[in-house]
Amino acid sequence: MLETLNAQPQDKILQLIAMYRDDPRSTKIDLGVGVYKDATGLTPVMRAVKAAEKTLWETEKTKTYTGLAGEPAYNAAMVAMILGGAHGDRAASVATPGGTGAIRQALELIKLSNPGATVWLSNPTWPNHPSIIKYLGMKMAEYRYFDAASGEVDFAGMLADLDRVAPGDVVLLHGCCHNPTGANLTMDQWGQVVGLLLQKRVIPFVDLAYQGFGDGLEEDAAATRLIADTFPEVLIAASCSKNFGIYRERTGILIALTSADRKAVVQGNLNFLNRQNYSFPPDHGARLVTMILEDAALRADWQAELEEVRQNMLTLRQTLSDELRKATNSDRFDFVARHRGMFSRLGLTEAQVNVLREKHGIYMVGDSRINIAGLNARTVPILAAAIASVI
Ligand code: LMR
Predict the structure, then answer these.
(1) For 111-149, how does the pLDDT look when each residue is reduced to its tens digit (9 = 90+)?
(2) Pairing outcome for strands 146-147 and 152-153
(3) Domain 8-37+299-390, what fold?
(4) Closest ligand 1 atom to the C-alpha of 180?
(5) How do residues 328-358 score in pLDDT, each as one tens digit?
(6) Fold entry, domain 49-294
(7) I need a labelling partner for 118 at 20 to 30 A (CA). Which of 52, 172, 201, 274 fits?
(8) Which residue has the least CA distance to atom 2 on ligand 1?
(9) 263 is catalytic
Protein backbone atom coordinates (compact mmCIF):
# COMPACT_ATOMS: atom_id res chain seq x y z
CA MET A 1 0.00 0.00 0.00
CA LEU A 2 2.54 2.59 1.07
CA GLU A 3 4.52 2.08 -2.14
CA THR A 4 1.79 4.02 -3.94
CA LEU A 5 2.67 7.23 -2.10
CA ASN A 6 4.40 10.02 -3.95
CA ALA A 7 6.80 12.43 -2.28
CA GLN A 8 5.01 15.51 -0.96
CA PRO A 9 6.23 18.98 -1.84
CA GLN A 10 8.24 20.45 1.03
CA ASP A 11 6.68 23.26 3.03
CA LYS A 12 8.82 26.24 2.03
CA ILE A 13 8.82 27.80 5.49
CA LEU A 14 9.63 24.60 7.37
CA GLN A 15 12.29 23.68 4.78
CA LEU A 16 14.17 26.85 5.70
CA ILE A 17 14.47 25.73 9.33
CA ALA A 18 16.46 22.67 8.24
CA MET A 19 18.58 24.59 5.73
CA TYR A 20 19.47 27.17 8.36
CA ARG A 21 20.30 24.49 10.94
CA ASP A 22 22.62 22.72 8.49
CA ASP A 23 24.51 25.91 7.53
CA PRO A 24 27.85 25.80 9.41
CA ARG A 25 28.55 29.56 9.10
CA SER A 26 28.58 31.31 12.48
CA THR A 27 27.52 34.57 10.79
CA LYS A 28 24.22 33.13 9.45
CA ILE A 29 21.02 35.06 10.12
CA ASP A 30 17.60 33.37 10.37
CA LEU A 31 14.71 35.51 9.10
CA GLY A 32 12.59 32.50 8.08
CA VAL A 33 9.91 30.89 10.23
CA GLY A 34 7.68 33.24 12.23
CA VAL A 35 8.87 32.87 15.80
CA TYR A 36 9.69 35.81 18.04
CA LYS A 37 13.32 36.04 19.13
CA ASP A 38 14.89 38.40 21.62
CA ALA A 39 18.17 40.24 20.98
CA THR A 40 20.14 37.10 21.92
CA GLY A 41 18.27 34.95 19.40
CA LEU A 42 16.25 33.11 22.06
CA THR A 43 12.51 32.54 21.78
CA PRO A 44 11.87 33.07 25.49
CA VAL A 45 9.17 31.51 27.66
CA MET A 46 7.19 34.55 28.80
CA ARG A 47 7.35 35.42 32.51
CA ALA A 48 3.62 34.93 33.09
CA VAL A 49 3.71 31.57 31.31
CA LYS A 50 6.56 30.39 33.55
CA ALA A 51 4.70 31.58 36.66
CA ALA A 52 1.47 29.87 35.57
CA GLU A 53 3.36 26.65 34.79
CA LYS A 54 4.85 26.63 38.28
CA THR A 55 1.45 27.10 39.91
CA LEU A 56 -0.06 24.49 37.64
CA TRP A 57 2.65 21.98 38.51
CA GLU A 58 2.02 22.59 42.20
CA THR A 59 -1.77 22.50 42.07
CA GLU A 60 -2.83 20.20 39.21
CA LYS A 61 -4.26 17.01 40.69
CA THR A 62 -5.39 15.16 37.59
CA LYS A 63 -4.68 14.81 33.89
CA THR A 64 -8.02 13.23 33.11
CA TYR A 65 -9.88 14.33 30.00
CA THR A 66 -11.18 17.85 29.81
CA GLY A 67 -14.16 18.99 27.67
CA LEU A 68 -14.36 17.90 24.04
CA ALA A 69 -14.61 21.57 23.08
CA GLY A 70 -11.82 22.42 25.53
CA GLU A 71 -12.12 23.71 29.07
CA PRO A 72 -15.10 26.14 29.05
CA ALA A 73 -13.10 28.76 30.99
CA TYR A 74 -10.46 28.83 28.22
CA ASN A 75 -13.05 29.31 25.50
CA ALA A 76 -14.79 32.06 27.48
CA ALA A 77 -11.52 33.89 28.22
CA MET A 78 -10.42 33.72 24.59
CA VAL A 79 -13.79 34.82 23.20
CA ALA A 80 -13.65 37.78 25.61
CA MET A 81 -10.07 38.69 24.68
CA ILE A 82 -10.81 38.58 20.97
CA LEU A 83 -14.32 40.05 20.90
CA GLY A 84 -14.01 42.42 23.85
CA GLY A 85 -16.84 40.92 25.89
CA ALA A 86 -19.49 41.00 23.15
CA HIS A 87 -21.21 38.15 21.27
CA GLY A 88 -20.74 35.53 24.00
CA ASP A 89 -24.40 34.53 23.65
CA ARG A 90 -23.94 33.56 20.00
CA ALA A 91 -20.35 32.27 20.03
CA ALA A 92 -19.84 28.55 19.60
CA SER A 93 -16.18 27.61 20.07
CA VAL A 94 -13.69 24.78 20.31
CA ALA A 95 -10.14 24.67 21.57
CA THR A 96 -7.81 23.45 18.82
CA PRO A 97 -4.19 22.37 18.42
CA GLY A 98 -2.80 25.80 17.53
CA GLY A 99 -4.05 28.26 14.98
CA THR A 100 -3.52 25.75 12.18
CA GLY A 101 -5.85 23.34 13.97
CA ALA A 102 -8.46 26.11 14.14
CA ILE A 103 -8.11 26.83 10.43
CA ARG A 104 -8.43 23.15 9.61
CA GLN A 105 -11.54 22.77 11.78
CA ALA A 106 -13.08 25.92 10.28
CA LEU A 107 -12.56 24.57 6.78
CA GLU A 108 -14.05 21.23 7.82
CA LEU A 109 -17.07 23.09 9.24
CA ILE A 110 -17.48 24.99 5.97
CA LYS A 111 -17.25 21.73 4.04
CA LEU A 112 -19.81 20.11 6.32
CA SER A 113 -22.35 22.92 5.99
CA ASN A 114 -21.76 24.11 2.41
CA PRO A 115 -19.51 21.74 0.43
CA GLY A 116 -19.82 23.86 -2.71
CA ALA A 117 -18.57 27.08 -1.10
CA THR A 118 -15.54 28.79 -2.58
CA VAL A 119 -12.99 30.03 -0.07
CA TRP A 120 -11.39 33.29 -1.16
CA LEU A 121 -7.79 33.90 -0.14
CA SER A 122 -5.66 37.00 -0.32
CA ASN A 123 -2.88 36.87 -2.89
CA PRO A 124 -0.46 36.27 -1.31
CA THR A 125 -1.42 34.47 1.87
CA TRP A 126 0.12 32.06 4.36
CA PRO A 127 1.01 29.04 2.14
CA ASN A 128 -0.70 26.58 4.48
CA HIS A 129 -4.11 28.17 3.74
CA PRO A 130 -4.29 27.00 0.11
CA SER A 131 -2.46 23.80 1.00
CA ILE A 132 -5.12 22.66 3.50
CA ILE A 133 -7.99 23.80 1.26
CA LYS A 134 -6.56 21.82 -1.66
CA TYR A 135 -6.02 18.79 0.57
CA LEU A 136 -9.66 18.94 1.67
CA GLY A 137 -10.76 19.11 -1.98
CA MET A 138 -12.51 22.45 -1.54
CA LYS A 139 -12.89 25.24 -4.06
CA MET A 140 -10.74 28.32 -3.68
CA ALA A 141 -10.19 31.64 -5.41
CA GLU A 142 -7.86 34.57 -4.87
CA TYR A 143 -8.38 38.26 -4.37
CA ARG A 144 -5.62 40.77 -5.03
CA TYR A 145 -4.08 42.14 -1.87
CA PHE A 146 -0.51 43.36 -2.28
CA ASP A 147 1.06 45.96 -4.52
CA ALA A 148 4.66 44.80 -4.85
CA ALA A 149 5.83 48.13 -6.29
CA SER A 150 4.76 50.21 -3.27
CA GLY A 151 4.89 47.48 -0.62
CA GLU A 152 1.35 48.51 0.39
CA VAL A 153 -2.12 46.96 0.09
CA ASP A 154 -3.54 46.99 -3.45
CA PHE A 155 -6.86 48.20 -2.11
CA ALA A 156 -8.49 48.97 -5.46
CA GLY A 157 -7.55 45.48 -6.70
CA MET A 158 -8.86 43.92 -3.50
CA LEU A 159 -12.25 45.63 -3.78
CA ALA A 160 -12.54 44.82 -7.49
CA ASP A 161 -11.89 41.12 -6.84
CA LEU A 162 -14.15 40.90 -3.78
CA ASP A 163 -16.90 42.38 -5.93
CA ARG A 164 -16.93 39.02 -7.75
CA VAL A 165 -17.66 36.79 -4.74
CA ALA A 166 -20.94 34.85 -4.73
CA PRO A 167 -23.46 34.72 -1.87
CA GLY A 168 -22.47 31.96 0.55
CA ASP A 169 -18.79 32.08 -0.38
CA VAL A 170 -16.25 32.35 2.42
CA VAL A 171 -13.67 35.14 2.45
CA LEU A 172 -10.57 34.51 4.52
CA LEU A 173 -9.17 37.73 5.99
CA HIS A 174 -6.06 38.23 8.11
CA GLY A 175 -7.40 40.02 11.20
CA CYS A 176 -4.12 41.91 11.71
CA CYS A 177 -0.43 41.64 10.83
CA HIS A 178 -0.89 40.17 7.34
CA ASN A 179 1.28 37.13 6.67
CA PRO A 180 3.44 37.23 4.51
CA THR A 181 3.31 40.87 3.44
CA GLY A 182 3.11 42.92 6.67
CA ALA A 183 0.83 45.37 4.79
CA ASN A 184 -2.51 45.98 6.50
CA LEU A 185 -5.80 47.75 5.90
CA THR A 186 -6.63 50.98 7.73
CA MET A 187 -9.84 50.91 9.78
CA ASP A 188 -11.46 53.05 7.10
CA GLN A 189 -10.55 50.43 4.49
CA TRP A 190 -11.81 47.65 6.77
CA GLY A 191 -15.12 49.55 6.90
CA GLN A 192 -15.32 49.53 3.11
CA VAL A 193 -14.45 45.81 2.85
CA VAL A 194 -17.02 44.94 5.50
CA GLY A 195 -19.68 47.03 3.69
CA LEU A 196 -18.97 45.28 0.39
CA LEU A 197 -18.90 41.77 1.86
CA LEU A 198 -22.13 42.36 3.76
CA GLN A 199 -23.80 43.37 0.52
CA LYS A 200 -22.40 40.20 -1.10
CA ARG A 201 -23.82 38.00 1.69
CA VAL A 202 -20.58 36.10 2.27
CA ILE A 203 -19.22 34.46 5.41
CA PRO A 204 -16.08 36.20 6.72
CA PHE A 205 -13.41 33.85 8.08
CA VAL A 206 -10.81 35.71 10.14
CA ASP A 207 -7.34 34.28 10.77
CA LEU A 208 -6.07 36.03 13.91
CA ALA A 209 -2.61 34.64 14.64
CA TYR A 210 -0.79 37.79 15.76
CA GLN A 211 -3.10 39.70 18.13
CA GLY A 212 -0.84 42.04 20.11
CA PHE A 213 2.04 42.04 17.61
CA GLY A 214 0.83 44.94 15.46
CA ASP A 215 -0.69 48.05 17.03
CA GLY A 216 -1.64 46.58 20.43
CA LEU A 217 -3.84 43.87 21.92
CA GLU A 218 -7.12 45.81 21.58
CA GLU A 219 -6.18 47.62 18.37
CA ASP A 220 -5.30 44.35 16.62
CA ALA A 221 -8.75 42.95 17.41
CA ALA A 222 -10.59 46.00 16.05
CA ALA A 223 -11.18 44.64 12.54
CA THR A 224 -12.33 41.27 13.89
CA ARG A 225 -14.74 43.05 16.28
CA LEU A 226 -16.11 45.19 13.45
CA ILE A 227 -16.75 42.03 11.44
CA ALA A 228 -18.35 40.31 14.45
CA ASP A 229 -20.59 43.34 15.04
CA THR A 230 -21.73 43.36 11.41
CA PHE A 231 -22.24 39.80 10.14
CA PRO A 232 -24.75 37.18 11.27
CA GLU A 233 -22.20 34.41 10.73
CA VAL A 234 -18.44 34.70 11.25
CA LEU A 235 -15.62 32.19 11.68
CA ILE A 236 -12.55 33.20 13.68
CA ALA A 237 -9.42 31.04 13.94
CA ALA A 238 -7.09 32.40 16.61
CA SER A 239 -3.69 31.30 17.82
CA CYS A 240 -1.89 31.71 21.16
CA SER A 241 1.43 30.53 19.66
CA LYS A 242 2.83 33.99 19.12
CA ASN A 243 1.21 36.33 21.65
CA PHE A 244 1.74 33.87 24.52
CA GLY A 245 4.96 32.43 23.01
CA ILE A 246 3.69 28.87 23.48
CA TYR A 247 4.28 27.64 19.94
CA ARG A 248 4.89 23.98 20.72
CA GLU A 249 1.99 23.70 23.17
CA ARG A 250 -0.40 23.98 20.20
CA THR A 251 -2.99 26.34 21.63
CA GLY A 252 -5.69 27.84 19.46
CA ILE A 253 -9.42 28.34 19.21
CA LEU A 254 -12.08 28.29 16.54
CA ILE A 255 -15.01 30.61 17.20
CA ALA A 256 -18.17 30.33 15.09
CA LEU A 257 -20.59 33.22 15.52
CA THR A 258 -24.16 32.36 14.68
CA SER A 259 -27.60 33.28 16.00
CA ALA A 260 -28.27 32.55 19.69
CA ASP A 261 -30.83 29.89 18.76
CA ARG A 262 -28.47 28.09 16.33
CA LYS A 263 -25.57 28.15 18.79
CA ALA A 264 -26.21 24.71 20.32
CA VAL A 265 -26.35 22.96 16.92
CA VAL A 266 -23.21 24.72 15.69
CA GLN A 267 -21.46 23.87 18.96
CA GLY A 268 -22.48 20.23 18.54
CA ASN A 269 -20.94 20.18 15.07
CA LEU A 270 -17.70 21.71 16.33
CA ASN A 271 -17.56 19.09 19.08
CA PHE A 272 -18.20 16.40 16.46
CA LEU A 273 -15.31 17.65 14.31
CA ASN A 274 -12.94 17.67 17.29
CA ARG A 275 -13.99 14.10 18.08
CA GLN A 276 -13.42 12.96 14.48
CA ASN A 277 -10.03 14.60 14.08
CA TYR A 278 -8.27 14.28 17.44
CA SER A 279 -10.90 13.91 20.11
CA PHE A 280 -9.94 16.13 23.05
CA PRO A 281 -7.82 19.18 22.21
CA PRO A 282 -4.45 19.73 23.94
CA ASP A 283 -4.94 21.26 27.37
CA HIS A 284 -1.62 22.41 28.82
CA GLY A 285 -1.20 25.62 26.82
CA ALA A 286 -4.92 26.42 27.03
CA ARG A 287 -4.82 26.06 30.80
CA LEU A 288 -1.84 28.41 31.08
CA VAL A 289 -3.61 30.98 28.91
CA THR A 290 -6.72 30.71 31.08
CA MET A 291 -4.73 31.16 34.27
CA ILE A 292 -3.02 34.23 32.83
CA LEU A 293 -6.18 35.84 31.46
CA GLU A 294 -8.13 35.22 34.67
CA ASP A 295 -5.51 36.49 37.12
CA ALA A 296 -5.14 40.29 37.20
CA ALA A 297 -1.43 40.28 38.16
CA LEU A 298 -0.42 37.57 35.68
CA ARG A 299 -2.44 39.21 32.95
CA ALA A 300 -0.84 42.61 33.57
CA ASP A 301 2.63 41.09 33.49
CA TRP A 302 1.85 39.16 30.28
CA GLN A 303 0.49 42.28 28.61
CA ALA A 304 3.56 44.27 29.69
CA GLU A 305 5.90 41.67 28.20
CA LEU A 306 3.81 41.40 25.02
CA GLU A 307 4.05 45.17 24.72
CA GLU A 308 7.87 44.98 25.07
CA VAL A 309 7.91 42.40 22.28
CA ARG A 310 5.76 44.64 20.08
CA GLN A 311 7.85 47.73 20.76
CA ASN A 312 11.02 45.80 20.04
CA MET A 313 9.69 44.80 16.61
CA LEU A 314 8.63 48.40 15.90
CA THR A 315 12.13 49.63 16.77
CA LEU A 316 13.68 46.98 14.51
CA ARG A 317 11.33 48.06 11.70
CA GLN A 318 12.34 51.69 12.04
CA THR A 319 16.08 50.98 12.22
CA LEU A 320 15.92 48.57 9.27
CA SER A 321 14.01 51.14 7.22
CA ASP A 322 16.59 53.82 8.13
CA GLU A 323 19.55 51.54 7.37
CA LEU A 324 18.03 50.53 4.02
CA ARG A 325 17.59 54.20 3.15
CA LYS A 326 21.26 54.79 3.82
CA ALA A 327 22.51 51.60 2.15
CA THR A 328 20.38 51.92 -1.01
CA ASN A 329 20.27 55.70 -1.12
CA SER A 330 16.53 55.46 -1.83
CA ASP A 331 13.16 55.35 -0.09
CA ARG A 332 12.28 52.05 -1.80
CA PHE A 333 12.08 50.16 1.51
CA ASP A 334 10.36 52.82 3.64
CA PHE A 335 7.30 50.55 3.81
CA VAL A 336 9.18 48.33 6.28
CA ALA A 337 8.54 50.94 9.00
CA ARG A 338 4.86 51.22 8.05
CA HIS A 339 4.23 47.47 8.02
CA ARG A 340 3.00 45.72 11.17
CA GLY A 341 3.49 42.31 12.75
CA MET A 342 6.36 39.87 12.39
CA PHE A 343 6.71 39.96 8.64
CA SER A 344 7.51 42.22 5.73
CA ARG A 345 7.69 41.15 2.12
CA LEU A 346 10.64 43.04 0.69
CA GLY A 347 9.89 42.68 -3.01
CA LEU A 348 13.17 40.96 -3.93
CA THR A 349 13.38 38.35 -6.67
CA GLU A 350 13.87 34.67 -5.85
CA ALA A 351 17.35 34.91 -7.40
CA GLN A 352 18.21 37.79 -5.03
CA VAL A 353 16.86 35.81 -2.08
CA ASN A 354 19.06 32.89 -3.12
CA VAL A 355 22.18 35.08 -3.29
CA LEU A 356 21.40 36.47 0.17
CA ARG A 357 21.24 32.93 1.50
CA GLU A 358 24.16 31.40 -0.39
CA LYS A 359 26.61 34.31 -0.27
CA HIS A 360 25.58 36.13 2.93
CA GLY A 361 24.04 33.34 5.02
CA ILE A 362 20.79 35.33 5.34
CA TYR A 363 17.73 33.09 5.34
CA MET A 364 14.33 34.43 4.28
CA VAL A 365 11.32 32.82 2.59
CA GLY A 366 11.65 32.63 -1.23
CA ASP A 367 9.03 35.34 -1.76
CA SER A 368 11.40 37.68 0.20
CA ARG A 369 9.33 37.59 3.40
CA ILE A 370 11.50 38.42 6.40
CA ASN A 371 10.74 37.77 10.04
CA ILE A 372 11.51 41.14 11.62
CA ALA A 373 11.97 39.49 15.03
CA GLY A 374 14.88 37.46 13.64
CA LEU A 375 16.90 40.70 13.55
CA ASN A 376 18.75 42.59 16.27
CA ALA A 377 20.70 45.86 16.51
CA ARG A 378 23.86 44.13 15.26
CA THR A 379 22.34 42.33 12.27
CA VAL A 380 20.12 45.14 10.91
CA PRO A 381 23.02 46.98 9.17
CA ILE A 382 24.41 43.66 7.91
CA LEU A 383 21.05 42.84 6.29
CA ALA A 384 20.71 46.34 4.83
CA ALA A 385 24.19 46.20 3.28
CA ALA A 386 23.57 42.70 1.90
CA ILE A 387 20.25 43.77 0.35
CA ALA A 388 21.90 46.84 -1.20
CA SER A 389 24.55 44.57 -2.72
CA VAL A 390 22.03 42.29 -4.46
CA ILE A 391 19.57 44.82 -5.91
C1 LMR B 1 5.04 31.33 9.72
O2 LMR B 1 4.30 31.77 8.82
O3 LMR B 1 6.27 31.36 9.65
C4 LMR B 1 4.40 30.77 10.94
O5 LMR B 1 3.03 30.89 10.90
C6 LMR B 1 4.87 29.40 11.24
C7 LMR B 1 4.32 28.37 10.31
O8 LMR B 1 3.79 27.37 10.80
O9 LMR B 1 4.42 28.52 9.09
Answers:
(1) 999 999 999 999 999 999 999 999 999 999 999 999 999
(2) antiparallel
(3) Aspartate Aminotransferase, domain 1 (3.90.1150)
(4) 2
(5) 999 999 999 999 999 999 999 999 999 999 9
(6) Aspartate Aminotransferase; domain 2 (3.40.640)
(7) 274
(8) 34
(9) no
